[in-house]
Amino acid sequence: MPDGASPLAYNSTWQIRSDAWCSLEESSAQLVLAGAQHRPLEELGETIAKLLDVLGPIERFWAFPGVPAFGKVRRLFAAGKYDRFAALVRGINRALATDSFRTGQAGDLGDEDDRAAHPMEPARTDRPYFEVLIVEDMTEHQEHSLREELRRWRRPDDAFIYEIVVVPSIEDAIMAARLNFRLQACVVRRRFARRSPYDSSSLARFVDSVVAEDVMERSPDDRAQELARALARLRPELDLYLMTEISVEDLAGRLSHHFRRIFHAREGSLEVHLSILDGVAARYRTPFFNALKNYSHRPTGVFHALPISHAKSILESHWIHDMIDFYGMEIFLAETSATCGGLDSLLEPTGPLREAQQLAAETFGSRKTYFVTNGTSTANKIVVQALVQPGDIVLVDRNCHQSHHYGLMLAGAMVTYLDAYPLHHYSMYGAVPLREIKRQLLALRRAGKLDRVKMLLLTNCTFDGVVYDVRRVMEECLAIKPDLVFLWDEAWFAFARFHPVYRPRTAMRAARTLIEQLRLPEYRERYQEFASEVGAIDSADDEVLLNRRLIPDPARARVRVYSTQSTHKTLTSLRQGSMIHVSDQDFSQKVEDTFHEAYMTHTSTSPNYQILASLDLGRRQADLEGFELVQKQIENAMRLRDAVDHHPLLSKYMRCLSTADLIPAEYRSSGIDQPLRSGLPNMIKVWNTDEFVLDPSRITIYIGATGIDGDHFKRGQLMDRFGVQINKTSRNTVLFMTTIGTTRSSVAYLIEVLVTIARELDNQIIDMSPAERAAHERAVQRLTSPSAPLPDFSGFHPSFAGSPAGDQGTPEGDVRRAFYLSYNDSYCEYLTPEEAEQRVENGEQVVSTTYVTPYPPGYPVLVPGQVFSPQILAFMRSLDTPEVHGYRPDLGYRVYVDKALEIAATARPEPPPDGPPA
């Protein structure tokens, strides 16, 4: 840890641990040097003692260096044997820094003095290493014996190697699962306490080891079951095993759904050892990647498509041999059109692709998972086409990705656009409040159209990191519409499954929780109490339903949830690798056939095998080290936030927007502005209670004080000058995001770049002439003052609206009719912005023929069939971005002529008959 740094400056113990060991090595070397030079040692000794105190509570949760070795470190320091102390610390730190301890040869580091300086003589270095948690209150001798017994079972041909971490209590087990990302399995034995015998107060901000107070009053097996539930909630990927001394046959029938296997304690440890290796091997499997790799090494004769297969068209080429120089041979050896010979068909998988998708379903917590090789844009269209038929009403966030707009148009949906809360000062939108969703559903119910409502489509999390309370949204909507289908666009949220705080707000976890909840007898009782207070939902007053939390009828609600994820955006995959996750109770009966047809419609018959193999590998990585990588992702994000906000020069020109900046107080019942900075327990509280939360790995930096707008900051500074890639900007913000691929070095480089930009700006301002300074101040004023307010959805023209003029109006509209009508050029004309404004001022209805999308913010301001409003035109006039899709600077807006609107009005399709569509 840097001099003077406190653990309070950190957001994860892994970073404290890493920095503390580095500081300890440096301080111990200085201690040896000071002793040799007969200089005072007191100050160094105090520093080292503090570092050892920081590490003490942490090290008992890690197998390396292990409690015995760390105890030896303390004893050598206390005895004044500084040379040996420094050598041992150096060996440990270098083993941690280089990961060389993963060979399993450093486990006895503290046992022999002559191994202190060189603790890790390698054996095999190619085997993945992990750690296993043992929960039992053991003596030091018993722990040592168990460790040696398990090591004796190792074989040279084992695919993996592991060491054990022994903890004596439930609290310690939960803390270990929170802190030690190397854990892959846990063996629960019968004898353990509830409370930890150790002082863990220094770790309070990083863990929450809450367990039932009465757990120790229960039987040993019930205690084991309670612990298994807690660990499964925290780390669902862990393989859990139970060792007991009573009737294992009886326990297997009662507890097998919690534990992978149950063993009798007196039958030795061999079966446990083999089962641990087998459990990790099951998750390590990559069926399609292995099949493709095996196929690529076989000699083939290609009398089919792909001349490039096995590089046949390249090897003898005189002109493109540099293609092999750049890509290497393996990618071409793996290029094939074959679907047999050990491979599989993505459209009708029966072999390794089917198995790979089943493994992905287990990893991501879905009932079914489908691989998609042309991005989440296609995944979204597949789900919409599978579920929505013409005339179905779909509620959708207007600020969703363009693929949803086009998908709903192609499906012929009647679209009800939902308005997210605006953040006018930053020219961006947040998320759609639950009250707005309920209001629209109740309006449709009042109009007698609830039976036509098919789907709610929302983005979780939003581009800027706003995360919904997914379960609550689904609960309250199902109370109004029990068979509503939910499509959660989680393109930027695939990683969230692998962190215990994020996970409950993912679609698949929320769906599973909701399904389990609806089956509970106590939930039925709770619903009866709710029903007695509110009465029948179908006839209850709208205001009553709007102003209280609703819960669904367990006898009627069907949990039907879909999630689309861009694996390539936040996990490991080649570009365009995505997945569709399904947790739909009615999938096999109502959807599977239409889903297959939609999948066939949008999926290439020649999918990219490299993308599919990378999805398979990305699933393996997420399963086995996702928890570790996401923790580091969050820590790196917080490091970046701290560096910007606490740097004297950077904070002069920019600042990171906090939760309070991006989520209004009315949606934050916890009242906590910066959850993670106040400790993990507070973050958990916020994520459990607030309607919206902010993903800390999304860092929106406000740059208004620079006088440089977001687009020029991105292109002219970050990308062109320094090669820093970012995606989104607004007029006065730039969005950075950390991923599992972000390193501390890349964060440091970004900070260097920002400081360089700020320093240059500082110097430029000093040298400015009065005229230049005035121009700069005007630019700052423009970016720090509110622009034209972000417009709400103005509404569809009556020719395309779902309700004829004069009817009880609901806002849905037929986007498909409005889109395709414009294919007849005679129905369309172009208006300059000034002409459009004049017509609107004259009271005329100007109707867009297409999607008009300015970048930024990147969302359609107009959709086909939508009426221009003064607010929309004022907002468009205030933009200084040159990139506006659907608008031609030379011609203006493409709009409908009156004749087209008259034709559209007379050609209005008949509304569907009452009742659900056939």
The helix content is 40-55%
Strand content: 5-15%
Q: Which class best fits the helix and strand makeup?
A: alpha/beta
The poorly predicted ranges are 114-121
Q: What's the helix count?
A: 34
Mean pLDDT across residues: 90
Oligomerization status of the protein chains: single chain
* Radius of gyration from the alpha-carbon trace, in angstroms: 31 Å
Terminal CA distance reads 66 Å
Q: How are the strands ordered across the major sheet?
A: 6-15-14-13-11-7-8-20
Sheet with the most strands, sense and barrel status: 8 strands, mixed
Shape: globular
> Quick one: how many beta strands?
25
How would you characterize the overall build of this protein?
Helices cover 45% and strands 12% of the residues. The strands form seven sheets. Strands 6-15-14-13-11-7-8-20 form an eight-stranded mixed beta sheet, with helices on both faces. Strand 1 (129-135), helix 5 (140-152) and strand 2 form a beta-alpha-beta unit. With 918 residues, it is of the alpha/beta class. The protein contains 34 helices and 25 strands.
